Amino acid sequence: MIHLQNVRKRYRRPDGGWFEAVASTSLSIGAGEIFGLIGYSGAGKSTLMRLINLLERPDEGSVIVDTQDLTGLSARELRRARQNIGMVFQQFNLLANRTVAGNVAFPLEIAGWSKGDIEKRVAECLEVVGLTDRAGHYPAQLSGGQKQRVGIARALAPNPKVILADEATSALDPKTTQSILDCLQDINRRFGVTVVVVTHEMNVVRSICQRAAVLDAGRVVEVLDIVDGRIEAESELARSLLEAA
Ligand SMILES: Nc1ncnc2c1ncn2[C@@H]1O[C@H](COP(=O)(O)OP(=O)(O)OP(=O)(O)O)[C@@H](O)[C@H]1O
Ligand SMILES: [Mg+2]
Question: Where is the ABC transporter domain (predicted)?
Answer without folding.
Answer: 2-242
